[in-house]
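ok so i was messing around last nite and threw this chain in just to see what happens. nothing serious, just curious
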Amino acid sequence: MTRMGILAAIAVACLNGSALAEPITKPLTIAVLNDKSSVFSDAGGTGSVVAAQLAIDDVGGKVRGLPVKMLGPDHQNKTDIGVSLARDLYDQQGVDAIFDIGNSAISLAVQNMARERGKVLVHVGSATADVFGKQCAPTAAMWLYDTYSLAQGIAKAVVKQGGDTWYFITADYAFGIAMQAEVSKVVEAAGGKVLGAVKHPVGTMDFSSFLLQAQSSGAKVIALANASGDTVTNIKQAREFQIGEGKQKLAVLIFYLTSVKALGSEATQGVQYLEGYYWDNDDASRAFGKRFLAKHGKMPTHAQAGVYSAVKHYLRAAEAANENDGLKVMRQMKAMPVDDFFAPGARVREDGRLMNDMLLAEVKKPSEVKGEWDLLTIKGKVKAEDIMRPIADGGCTLLDPPVKQ
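result:
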């Protein structure tokens, strides 16, 4: 190469280097996309937006000196609306990351968009394990519970206590169907039997026919593979049939503090379920709970606390990576341990699963309740490695490692 050629090559390299080093001037925009007007609104809803704003506040409201913008559309628990909104957020609104979702069918549809566009998507209120399994994406993460971990955490314990015959009342959509399948596997592996199941539409107001079928099955355990408002209605009507008071017990597979509050401890006393967060678990949890209560008027559900954690971790990773690019930020999220009350020290695996410990909670008797939100007793901690599905069993073919520190 001639002297002039060498100088020209150096000049081009310098120009490219300076271009790469130019500061990013586009502020981050995030969206909390979930149900704000239907059956799942109490579990996430506007409370998740409040939680996300607290996370933004806790990083100073800015990333790389630029203000963080947040949007909070309502998908109304309808898949077509959720997909349309997500497409608009990514393609027209310039959103860098979407959080929560809270509906497994919508999560699976939006996952495809995130994968195609290289955009960040963090599932919190949704529970389908497919998003870190056969439908995984390098820019997506699962932050709270999932059908596999819920099944492992609850079903084994119930069978061990003698509940060896099961009947399911199942919500007829992706989460309910997957939840029934996962729990059935665990029950049968533990030596139990599944005697049958009945499906109901989301938003069902009258469960009497479903409860009669479950009751007549003779199963020791009637498992509710539904969530939020459906679970509340289901439990209320189950009590009218005296289900849960005699030989037949209710197994609630996914539950929320706000649902316990809505039903009251009289109706829910003794119910055990997995919690990702409880406001009275430790000092850090109490501090967040009080902040959230002051803003929202209710204590946070574990889904809302999970949104806080996911948003804060994303913003910290974007700052550390000095990037808006979804793949690079997600790699940084995997490289950094979580630093908050929700999942202290936890890490995001290559398949996008946050390895967060869970809490085994039991609803208190009315005589034990000392305050408005003093509703649960924490019976113990369930370690992530004991209930999370191994990467090798998930079928994720797009494993993406974290950046090297």
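not much to say yet. The domain at 29-145+281-356 is CATH 3.40.50.2300 (Rossmann fold).
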